[in-house]
């Protein structure tokens, strides 16, 4: 079963942020963050949106509907975004074995 609190705690520790630091960024108390992480309380829509921005994930991800994270590209031009997309595509491809004499494709 999906556990919002566990996902929130993993995201928070991954940055890393303390409960107090996250609470300050959200304008809430540390005890409320603890309540979220222990599945005692559930955040409002406004807080969910703030969390998605802080952790660079979608609200769907926070709610357990997606298994991937998002990358914010605001402030980048089209060429920079294209380079990021190409880099991600390159990282998803299996690496060639240099023993086989296949140098693989080079990035850009």
Quick rundown:
The protein has 108 residues and is an all-alpha fold. Helix content is 53%, strand content 0%.
Which features does this protein show?
108 residues, 434 Repressor (Amino-terminal Domain), 6 helices, elongated
Q: Tell me the helix content.
A: 40-55%
Secondary-structure-derived class: mainly alpha
H/E element order = HHHHHH
CATH topology of the domain at 4-62: 434 Repressor (Amino-terminal Domain)
User: What's the β-strand tally?
Assistant: 0
Query: Roughly how many Å is the radius of gyration?
Result: 19 Å
CATH class of the domain at 4-62: Mainly Alpha
pLDDT < 50 stretches: none
Question: How large is the share of residues in beta strands?
Answer: under 5%
Give the overall shape, derived from the CA principal axes: elongated
> Main beta sheet: strand number and arrangement?
none
Intertermini distance: 42 Å
């Amino acid at each position: 079963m999906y556990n919002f609190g566990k996902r929130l705690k993993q995201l928070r520790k991954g940055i890393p942020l303390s409960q107090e630091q996250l609470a300050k960024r959200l304008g809430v108390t540390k005890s409320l963050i603890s309540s979220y992480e222990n599945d005692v309380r559930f955040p409002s829509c406004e807080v969910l949106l703030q969390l998605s921005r802080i952790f660079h994930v979608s609200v769907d991800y926070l709610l357990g509907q997606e298994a991937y994270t998002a990358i914010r590209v605001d402030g980048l031009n089209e060429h920079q975004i294209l380079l990021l997309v190409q880099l991600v595509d390159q990282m998803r491809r299996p690496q060639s074995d240099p023993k086989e004499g296949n140098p693989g494709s080079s990035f850009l």
